[in-house]
Amino acid sequence: MAKNLVQFLIEEQRRNPTDDDLTGLLDDIVIACKKIAYNVNKGGLIGVLGSAGSENVQGETQKKLDVITNDIFIEACEWSGHYAALASEEMDDVHPIPAQYPKGKYLVSFDPLDGSSNIDVNISVGTIFSILRCPKGVTTPTAEDFLQPGTRQICAGYALYGPATMMVLTTGNGVNGFTLDNGVGEFFLTHPNMTVPVDTQEFAINASNQRFWEAPVQRYIDECVKGKSPGGREKNFNMRWVASMVAEVHRILVRGGIFMYPFDTKEAGKAGKLRLLYEANPMSFIIEQAGGLASTGRGRIMELKPTGLHQRVPVILGSKNEVERVVSYHKGT
Ligand code: AHG
Ligand code: MN
Ligand code: MN
After folding, report:
1. What does pTM read for this prediction?
2. Which of 155, 171, 191 lies at the terminal end of a domain, its last residue?
3. I want to staple 156 with a disulfide (CB 3.0 to 4.6 A). Which of 99, 212, 282, 332 is the partner?
């Protein structure tokens, strides 16, 4: 039988010794994701679908499951002594560790339910997380302590609640994917050493925003759409858009592709849609560890110095040769 996730982590830690208690840290998150999978999977049977009737800090209407999954994640991570504080897409401020629990050395930021517009229509959703070290000497972390570039992540991953529930993660030594065996209640290694093919013929972008894109992205997509016809490319392209970043990144890890939520002028003051700390950085770490690239179009996402907990950034990630092409179109703009 394939290795389970805990065995995999312990063996990896033996091979690449580190002071970081990755097994313990990830245990909390694995439990959270199993509970979230259970709730997502039961759906209408347990009355969790539909709107919560509230808005998050970013002015987005929250689904009931946005709130429920956020609570599940917090409950699973706050008690164990691994974390010094938590930050979530669904909470205005940093979540401190309650006084009755010990504080740990790590910070975790997370998107408890990614792609939540898909939840009521029974399409794949996910959970994304990113783990940082808490700065030395800090006992009560504030938002400032989370504003570390993505290059400082020690671990990042996502759970995908699709036809099968999967956990895909990196601790900086490649990317591995695990599938939840519901009968046993454990994740087993099914996708070792995931790598993103360098070339692709598949792109993912929300084309309804086309009129708001900048010239380099307009040019790139125009060429892909034209394919082998005049003014296009040496090959034809296919297009996918799930509207769940987790599902798009997973597809790219399995068969290649390029995913873009680029800079647009749709809403003044927002540099993009996706959030640096909860979505862009963890997914960039995973994609880069799998041999792909992740850029804003003008620079490596993981080298950005975050300026705010809920900061949004343009995201262009996936197969190396296509991301490089889009970046080259941005040069001098
Ligand atoms: P969330 O559900 O956490 O708010 O994230 C949704 C994100 C991302 O998963 C997806 O790629 C994108 O928003 C979809 O946006 P559009 O609805 O604009 O296509
Ligand atoms: Mn999201
Ligand atoms: Mn979300």
Report:
1. 0.97
2. 191
3. 282
